[in-house]
Structure formats: C-alpha cells, structure tokens
Amino acid sequence: FSKIGIVGAMVEEIELLHKHTDVTNTIHKAGITFYEGRFHDKDIIFGKSGVGKVNAAVCTQVLIDMGVDCILFTGVAGALDPELEIGDIVISTSCLQHDMDVTPLGFARGVIPFQEVSDFNADPRLIELAEQASERLFNGRYRKGKILSGDQFVASRETVKELYEDLGGTCTEMEGAALAQVCAMNGIPYVVIRSMSDKADGSAHVNFEEFTVKASDHSYRIIDDIISRM
Ligand code: ADE
C-alpha cells in the first residue's frame, strides 16, 4: 500500500493520530477537512467523516479520488454479540446496511435491489494486520465478524436480538457499510475496526459517552500498530 486513507466518524477517533502525524498538507473538500502527511514513514491521508452513511460515503469517495489505495476506518460501535464486553474490538470481515429494507418487494432485509453484492467483504490482508494488532494490544479481546451499519443509534434489546439473530451482526454502527460499498465500487481494499462503547441496549447512551475517551486511545493504538507493519 503506497497511500493509506484513514477515517473516523468523530473528532475523538482521529485526534491522537493528528497529534502524532507530520501533517504536510490540509485539504478542504465537500465540507470535510483532510490531513495529508507522514506516519511511520508512510504516506497517509485522514479525515473526520461525520456521523452516518452519507457522510461516510462522501468522505470515502473523496479520499479515493485523492489517490489512497486502501482505507482503514476506526471508531466505536454498539456490541450485538452477547459475548462482547465494552472495550472489546471488532474487526470487519464484511459490512452490511441493516437499514436497507426493500422487503415489500420480496428482497431479504439488508439486500440492495438489483445488484450482486450487499454484504461487502473486507480485505484479507488488512483483516490480518488488524487481527495481529488486536492480539498484541488487547490480549485477544477481539472478534472478527459482520458489521451492520444504519442511520440509527441502536438502544433497545429487541433491535439487538434482531440484528444479531436475523442478520448475523457482531456489532452495529453508522458508517462502515457505506464506506465498504464505496470502496467496493472503486475496487479499493478496506477494513473497519471498532471498539465497543456500549451494548446497544437501554444504557447505550450512558456507556457511549463514558467510553469515548478510552475508545479513542484504542483507535489510535491499533492504527499505529497496523501502519507500523504495512
Ligand atoms: N456507535 C456506538 N454505539 C452505537 C450504537 N448503539 N448504535 C449505533 N452506532 C453506535
């Protein structure tokens, strides 16, 4: 990989990276600020997409147009797999939009009509790098799995059950599958790495706020470890 794109949805998710990067150029595009620079002797560009699928999609396309040849997304998510604890890491094997719903026309939930793929695979090499980083940094407190994205902050047990049992999601967030789809449309490898800020249940909002600081630290350490070995 010769130019690495990195995306976080919130400022906390990329601020440590900003602090440790030799920023050589700042670019404003589509309302997003991108920082270009050197990190572990690699060329990187990173930016804060903002929350939700449209923000993530636009940010991803702009990064690709700026010449990145892979994209890492880092941030927090709500756990769906009951074995996950707050603080654990999830690495995407694939990403699917759980709010894509054309069931009245006979399409299964999550399926984007009239196209071959709706569950977008992450890149095996990037998954492997993320797995090695998580193994080393978090004593194996990580899981690989399908990440479900939608323009919804999930905060109920029923929705968790549905997303876990019906769609097979490991965790839920609001950007990954949009980024994944744009990457697939452009033939660019990606991986999404999330630390669990909450269990997407009734206490999600409380855990979410408490955990954001710790999660930013996780995000930075994983990215740091991955890029140092690229
Ligand atoms: N990001 C972090 N927690 C989340 C949740 N419960 N739902 C959606 N996105 C999230």
Quick take:
The protein is of the alpha/beta class. The chain is 36% helix and 31% strand. A five-stranded mixed barrel has the order 5-9-8-6-10, surrounded by five helices.
What does the model show?
The radius of gyration is 16 Å and the shape is globular. The chain has six helices and ten strands; from the N terminus they run E-H-E-E-E-H-E-E-E-H-E-H-E-H-E-H. The longest helix is centred in the C-terminal third of the chain and has 25 residues, at 204-228. Strand 8 (142-149), helix 4 and strand 9 (169-173) form a beta-alpha-beta unit. It has one domain: Nucleoside phosphorylase domain (Rossmann fold, 3-Layer(aba) Sandwich). The relative contact order is 0.22. Helix 3 (124-137) packs across helix 6 (204-228). It is α/β, with parallel strands linked by helices. The protein starts with a strand and ends with a helix. Strands 5-9-8-6-10 form a five-stranded mixed beta barrel, surrounded by five helices. The mean pLDDT is 95. The site of adenine (ADE) has 14 residues, from strand 5, strand 9, strand 10 and helix 6. This is adenosylhomocysteine nucleosidase. Pfam families: PNP_UDP_1. Pathway: Amino-acid biosynthesis; L-methionine biosynthesis via salvage pathway; S-methyl-5-thio-alpha-D-ribose 1-phosphate from S-methyl-5'-thioadenosine (hydrolase route): step 1/2. One of its GO terms (molecular function) is methylthioadenosine nucleosidase activity. Its EC number is 3.2.2.9.
